[in-house]
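Side project, low priority. Logging it here so it doesn't get lost.
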Amino acid sequence: MPLSDALIERLQQIVGKENVLAEAEDLIPYSFDGTAALRQRPDCVAFVRTPEEVADVLKLGNETGTPIVTRGAGTGLSGGSLPSKEAIVMCTVHMNQILELDRANLTLLAEPGATTQAVAKAAEEAGLFYPPDPGSMKISTIGGNVAENSGGLRGLKYGVTRNYVMGMEVVLPTGEITWLGNKCVKDVAGYSLKDLFVGSEGTLGVITKVLLRLIPRPRAKRTMVATFARMDQAAEAVSAIIADHIIPCTLEFLDRTTIHCVEDYAQIGLPLDCEALLLMETDGHPAVVEEEAEEMQRICRENHCKEVRVAQDAQEATRLASARRSAFSALARVCPTTILEDATVPRSELAEMVRFVERVAKRYELKIGTFGHMGDGNLHPTFLTNEKNADEMHRVEEAFKEIFEEAIRLGGSITGEHGVGLAKKPFLPRFVGDTSMHVMRQFRQTLDPNAILNPGKIFD
């Protein structure tokens, strides 16, 4: 049943009447995130601006048994911020300030609603570097990045969001405000509780401040694009680059379908006479960059690449890199429904996994574009379909089941960066096992005894 007028009135008293949406038409944009074919309208949306408001909303939820779903920009791809039935969506986008940039300790303190791009820009203006760069970085929020442990194109060399979180302020589900972590490079006092909240997908607490680690900005960068007649040749080239002890900043790939969609969408000037494209970037000391760039070109040629194109200036490098960043947007124009998934395998299994995805798409008669972070084994098979076609959607579901099962068989994971949410929940027990599921349930029950925070996500 809908939330009572009395509860909504109490919510308005906490955050202000102007910060509560309860009319049906106002709630539509908060009924979905970036995950295709999943939607649920919330009963109301509350915009919070302080940790104290967050705490009071959570206390209200506990008192009344009302589910609370925290939401940033809603760019997630696993249904993690999808509203639960009869839920309050608590939106943190107005908590968007960069609070401190500490050059002496190489840290940045931000509110959860600050965009990833704003964090990266603030670091850059200080002559520093924040490496995590999810594809949605222009609009995704840093709180969401931490909650999902987001990856990005530079993950191969620099790691994921978890590697840059030094501390955080968290409001626990029962309303207590606590600080976890600090600016110390070394700290082994007690359990590392901050790491428990990174990647917890909004199920253990609400992040209200994030302390991030910054690093010196690389002095040089070189961007290259290599094209291949076959996708498995590109995968084998990636494996050879890593085996040669080269860790590029970026090592991304696009298949033929994605290349054509991107070129039609962005007019970058990509070669269209190939089955696979590798975007490669190396950064660091100028001398090392030149050496690694030459070595990667040699390895690609030894693995039968058709051509290697080296960016001649920063503008061309940015244009080539945009080919990968625009892949999802380009594919989304082709069919009414675009279902972007992620599965990760050990790098040694890349070629086999790519071939398997191609076979699955052919067997189920589905159109697929595959791209992703080939350097860290993270593939994004993207099915171009129509959610109104029930038969085709059933075939998509069956195809994804096979892909996830194969990823597990090859020693990989059901998700490399999108999280579990609702979309991957059925596959989690098979991946982690009964004992790990039991431990995760115990953690969650201890922190959220009344089960109000993002219920139904990750596991029931």
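Brief comment: The longest strand covers residues 220-228.
Revisit when time allows.
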